[in-house]
Amino acid sequence: MDERGAGRRLAAANASSRRAATATATSRSAASFTAPAGVYATVERLAGGTYRITERSGMKYVFESVNGTATDTSQKSRLLSISDKNNNTLTLAYSANCGNNLCTVTDGLNRALTFTYVGNRISQISDWSGRSWQYTVDANGDLTTFKNPLAVAGTQPAVTYQYYSSADGAKLAHAMKQYQLPRGNGMRFPPSTGPNSAAKPNKSTARAMSAASSSTNTATRSQLPTKPAPKPPTPITPQPGKPICAKAKPLPTARPPATPTTAPATSATSRYPAARPCNTATTPPSANRNGSRTPTTTGRSTALIPPAT
Fold first, then answer.
1. Mapped to the 3 state alphabet, what secondary structure does the chain carry?
2. Please, what sign has the CA dihedral across residues 177, 116, 1, 131?
3. Which among 56, 148, 203, 227 is least surrounded, fewest beta carbons within 10 Å?
């Protein structure tokens, strides 16, 4: 789909055909070209004088009719159409109103992209629905702003670009300095790490920079405070009649094992769980099934347990 790429393929095919002397022309309306080994595209001149390149994938590129000359240094043939193997076609049109540049690209459904130029550079692309994309180029030929349809409508800022100039360095002209996206985020490229950074300094400059860096680091290290030397151990003076021994560290005191707590046992013959302890002063005993009152004292609390049946 690249116009220049297809043009290069046409020029290469024509040149190789001439070198191989395998082109035979019977008339202006019919010519055949035999591709050299390794090239799987065919080149032919159609009845109207146009040229067509057909790739093995089925893609077809048609170029305008241009008569060959003794030298092909200034020969150009513009791309007219691109078709795939299913015959879906894009038609390219040129006009003097566009400076003889590409004006429109139209598909099979008559939907078109329209190109507008400032000089020979694209300044705007509009589609069939009315959306536009705008490009601003400065006097140095560098892209400075890009606006998508939202930015063209004024609902968001444009993408902006800044570049270095020859005043910043002999090899920094047109190198990108920074860009900023509509949300305000972006990226800045220092001269030494930018996409088109300048050449590395020569050996003498590198040695000077290294020496300066080394002296700075040495001065910095000398100004740093030093840690005090550790104190020597105190010698033990032996005393008559007492052995010399090191003080043993006391062993950590082990925690006593936790006392296991068990739930109160329940009589195997009882159908009821053990009654909750209660205070005899505030909770009266309750009667069991046969009407008797059976208080059971455990510790300081009294529990009422129903009789077994």
1. CCHHHHHHHHHHHHHHHHHHCCCEEEECCEEECCCCCCCCCEEEECCCCCEEEECCCCCEEEECCCCCCCCCCCCCCCEEEEECCCCCEEEEEEEHHHCCEEEEEECCCCCEEEEEEECCEEEEEECCCCCEEEEEECCCCCEEEEECHHHHCCCCCCEEEEECCHHHCCCCCCCEEEEECCCCCEEECCCCCCCCCCCCCCHHHHHHHHHHHHHHHHHHHHHCCCCCCCCCCCCCCCCCCCCCCCCCCCCCCCCCCCCCCCCCCCCCCCCCCCCCCECCCCCCCCECCCCCECEEEECCEEEECCCCC
2. positive
3. 227
Q: Quote the tokens at residue 37.
A: 């080994």
Cα end-to-end distance, the chain, whole Å: 98
Tell me the residue type at 70.
A
pLDDT tens digits, residue range 75-120? 788 999 999 999 999 999 999 989 899 999 999 999 999 999 999 9
pTM: 0.52
Q: Residue 184 — left, alpha, or beta (φ > 0 → left; ψ -120 to 50 → alpha)? A: left
